[in-house]
Amino acid sequence: MKKLFQHEILDFFVKNDIENFVGVPDSTLKQFISYALKKKKIIIAAREEEAIGIATGMALSGSNSLVFMQNAGFANSLSTITSLVQLYKIPLIFLIGWRGYLKEDAPEHRKIGKIQPDLLKIIQLPTKIISDKNWKKSCKWAINKIESKKSCALVIRREFYD
Amino acid sequence: MIRKEAMRIILEEIGDDPIISANGFISRDLFELKEKNTNFYMIGSMGLASSIGLGVAIKNPKKTIYVFDGDGNILMNLGSLTTIGTIKPKNFIHIIFDNHAHESTGGQPTNTKNISISNIGKVTNFHVFEINDINNLRRQIKKIKKINGTIMIVVKINNSKIRSGRVTLDPVLIKNRFMESL
Prior knowledge:
Chain A is of the alpha/beta class. Chain A has eight helices and six strands.
């Protein structure tokens, strides 16, 4: 059976010295998260800002970190990103599941989902949207960012509504 | 006792171990009392000192990591206590200066007057010490330093009119020298 691309992403990051995966679960990212749980490479935080705080402590210790969350949690974290991650120039990879990408997604996701690209743009976080087709190139880009001590975001769209 | 007095005594006892300090008057007091490379002054991101401290503690198991926190700060991130209490780092000392108030924003009340932070610490797997008396503080800190574990020290303080100056260092410098010190 072909390996799921969300599993390949985790293996790729582990191979490229991303040592910590900290975040809040999201259904769009569930294959990534359950695979990371199985490999015992993960910390589940109570809130997204908390996850960013833990990952920051690890980054301060010279250990490369990725934080994962839903776009709603990313929106919760804007002030933490500006007043911690960007203010101190902490290198982190954000992996974001994007609810509300589809217009017909659940009502609670529609408005925040619609402005998700604008939020990323307005806080000037370099971003790539990834899929099973292009993930490798964009994940390499993210590794280069973190090696040059910069933050960036990878976004996986929720392309179905169940 | 007031925070700056209590902090001075604690600092005399803990040497140069790394400290993550919460935003507002806590970081400002630390900056005036004992400026050093092993201080990470968290000047924004209110609530996250304990989480940053957890990340540093996990990655530096041979060092004792101190978090200087406030009651208003920890109330903003109570979930972090459940994460810390699940991971249970042996090198994590969480000092909470509790004055039942947001002193940095003008002394507005917090809920710790009615709900005990120490009790929350106990149910989240911390080894909790509560200190009310400045005469006991030094003796208690000496004792606690010898214990391994996930420790919470709630230091009950009074509000005060003493104001320390702002942290004037560039945040990137704070980060770089903290990283080099680990």
